[in-house]
User: Which sequence fits this backbone?
């Protein structure tokens, strides 16, 4: 079954680590963007009935509750199997949580990143651990008990002790789903650019060494497993039956339609990408032009491996693929990066840490 992704790239402030196409924009652009998003949804010819909806960003918790209800009313299939909204910690109120529930939202992804105050402050976020706990209580009181907590390993000043503190909070809150990302260092974020130029702003000089980041990631796998939150994808962990149904579509090559700036779509045969910025998206929609700027044929041979192998359950190569990739599979198995029972191929624990090296071998 298919899914729907809605991009809302508007934030109250830009976090130092963020390399997404999101930011702080004028309120008038935000209003026009919501109108463009409604027009885009209203004009779409649904080839299937969506079973999941995901609102990402940015900070889609900024969407006024009435506007959110209008957007979701344009998506068929309600009640969906899963409807998720990303939220900035500290932005949830009892009224907002109830409005989400009434609009069909049953899952919230909280961009916590850290529960340690000095680490939080360096990212540009303004929440506290206690405020996150309050958000979780508000969600549960509104009938939303399915939520995700994002954490980042590798933040400036992070240590094994502070990482344990964040994991302690995850256990205390009994989170049903956790995402653990290793800090990405590239020119697309302020922190990444500062690290690459050898500067010290945003705590760049206090970035933990790569060896420690790998240890933190491994510690998260062990600690979360010990409290019943098992790793099911390289960056994602869940209690039984609480895996993200929507995100599993990406890794299992199931179709989804993306709406908004920098949103992507996949229909089983082609991949499409929208214009990157909200200004471009609004301009295209207001002039009656398609916001899609790129359409490429799907490369199923490659995608089956570098997406399917992200899942800890692995993937099942075809007979032709076993023959085609016999040499690299044998080599990685000998090096302890891949394991197989002759039917399923999966990354080992060590292979997860070196997954990019493995994936490279299966790219045409």
Assistant:
């Amino acid at each position: 079954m298919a899914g729907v992704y809605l991009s809302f790239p508007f934030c109250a402030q830009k976090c130092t680590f963020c390399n997404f196409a999101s930011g702080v924009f004028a309120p008038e652009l935000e209003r026009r963007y919501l109108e463009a998003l409604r027009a885009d949804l209203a004009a779409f010819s649904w080839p299937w009935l969506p079973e999941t909806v995901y609102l990402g960003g940015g900070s889609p918790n900024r969407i006024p509750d009435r506007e959110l209800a209008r957007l979701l009313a344009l998506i068929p299939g309600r009640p969906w199997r899963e409807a998720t909204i990303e939220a900035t910690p500290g932005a949830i109120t009892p009224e907002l949580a109830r409005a989400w529930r009434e609009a069909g939202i049953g899952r919230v992804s909280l961009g916590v990143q850290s529960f340690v105050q000095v680490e939080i402050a360096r990212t540009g976020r303004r929440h506290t651990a206690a405020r996150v706990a309050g958000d979780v209580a508000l969600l549960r009181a509104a009938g939303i008990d399915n939520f995700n907590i994002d954490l980042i390993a590798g933040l400036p000043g992070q240590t094994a002790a502070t990482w344990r503190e964040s994991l302690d909070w995850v256990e205390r809150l009994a989170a049903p789903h956790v995402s653990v990302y290793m800090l990405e260092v590239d020119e697309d974020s302020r922190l990444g650019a500062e690290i690459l130029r050898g500067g010290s702003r945003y705590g760049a000089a206090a970035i933990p060494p790569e060896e420690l980041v790998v240890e933190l990631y491994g510690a998260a796998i062990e600690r979360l497993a010990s409290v019943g939150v098992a790793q099911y994808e390289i960056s994602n962990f869940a209690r039984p039956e609480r895996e993200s149904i929507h995100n599993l579509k990406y890794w299992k090559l199931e179709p989804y339609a993306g709406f908004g700036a920098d949103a992507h779509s996949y229909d089983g045969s082609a991949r499409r990408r929208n214009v990157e910025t909200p200004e471009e998206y609004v301009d295209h929609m207001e002039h009656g032009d398609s916001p899609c700027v790129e359409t490429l044929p799907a490369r199923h041979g490659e995608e089956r491996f570098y997406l399917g192998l992200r899942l800890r359950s692995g993937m099942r190569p075809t007979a032709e693929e076993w023959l085609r990739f016999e040499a690299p599979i044998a080599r990685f198995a000998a090096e302890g990066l891949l394991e197989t029972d002759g039917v399923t191929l999966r990354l080992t624990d060590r292979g997860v840490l070196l997954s990019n090296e493995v994936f490279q071998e299966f790219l045409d």
